[in-house]
């Protein structure tokens, strides 16, 4: 999962302590503690544990696990994409997506300077994929100015000197902007820019369901412009991690893929 903390300073133990809320009874006795450190601290209910213990399982490497297959198919349906891949973490989901689109070392991805992929994911796109991040300032609402995105796209005339732009990454909701939601109109506009320049669009959608509820927009509509999207399920109160979801299966073909983090 993905903690929603400031990119510039991690909260101190004192700050974390005040994020617990005690619900008091009429007599002033604590009856329940609500942990607000992060939406990643969810724990499974007894019903969830029972469902996991009773799940029909098989070898997922061979594509034979019926529960995983149903789960992936359902996530792809919900997101309006062709396929989904279940992976252990949101970081892995984003990494797979970036590397699927930037399949040549020396590729470049345009992303926000305060985005989760850039700040919190160990530089994995560079370390493991040889992908160069080109940052654009995030606005307080989590967006990047479209004009600045366009300006960051490398000219093919400089291919001898510069990395090759292949991907744009958005984050919805945007954690370091206080969970701000990116609108359909904004995402569509960035998608049009990507298509006009022959680029792909990935959405880090760890909390995309939150954005869907807040905006009153179906989640598949929020990600329609994207070639891939990562989704974290543990942030919805489950023990599952993440999905990478996209068009077709980029790992097996040349199209796309959608990781889901449980």
TrEMBL record:
Cofactors demanded by this protein: pyridoxal 5'-phosphate
GO biological process, one term: glycine biosynthetic process
Pfam families noted in UniProt: Beta_elim_lyase
GO CC list: cytosol
Keyword Lyase found: yes
Molecular function terms from GO: L-allo-threonine aldolase activity
Record's keyword terms, sorted: Lyase, Pyridoxal phosphate
Residue ranges of every copy of the Aromatic amino acid beta-eliminating lyase/threonine aldolase domain listed in the record: 35-233
Record family assignment: Belongs to the threonine aldolase family.
Designated name of the protein: Aromatic amino acid beta-eliminating lyase/threonine aldolase domain-containing protein
């Amino acid at each position: 999962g993905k903690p929603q903390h400031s990119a510039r300073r991690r909260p101190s133990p004192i700050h974390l302590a005040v994020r617990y809320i005690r619900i008091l009874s009429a007599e002033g006795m604590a009856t329940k503690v609500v942990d607000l450190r992060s939406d990643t601290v969810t724990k499974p209910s007894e019903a969830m544990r029972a469902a996991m213990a009773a799940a029909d399982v098989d070898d997922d490497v061979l594509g034979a696990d019926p529960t995983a297959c149903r789960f992936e198919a359902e996530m792809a349906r919900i997101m309006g994409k062709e396929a989904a891949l279940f992976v252990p973490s949101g970081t892995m989901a984003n990494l797979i997506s970036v590397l699927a689109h930037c399949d040549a070392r020396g590729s470049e991805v345009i992303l926000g300077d305060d985005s989760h992929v850039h700040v919190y994911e160990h530089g994995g796109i560079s370390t493991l994929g040889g992908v160069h991040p080109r940052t654009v300032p995030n606005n307080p609402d989590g967006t990047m100015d479209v004009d600045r995105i366009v300006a960051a796209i490398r000219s093919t005339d400089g291919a001898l000197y510069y990395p090759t732009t292949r991907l744009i990454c958005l984050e919805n909701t945007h954690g370091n902007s206080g969970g701000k939601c990116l609108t359909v109109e904004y995402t569509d506009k960035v998608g049009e820019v990507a298509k006009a320049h022959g680029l792909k669009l990935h959405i880090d959608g760890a909390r995309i369901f939150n954005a869907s509820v807040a905006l009153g927009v179906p989640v598949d509509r929020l990600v329609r412009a994207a070639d891939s999207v990562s989704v974290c399920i543990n942030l919805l109160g489950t023990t599952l991690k993440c999905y990478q979801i996209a068009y077709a299966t980029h790992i097996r073909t040349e199209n796309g893929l959608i990781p889901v983090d449980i």
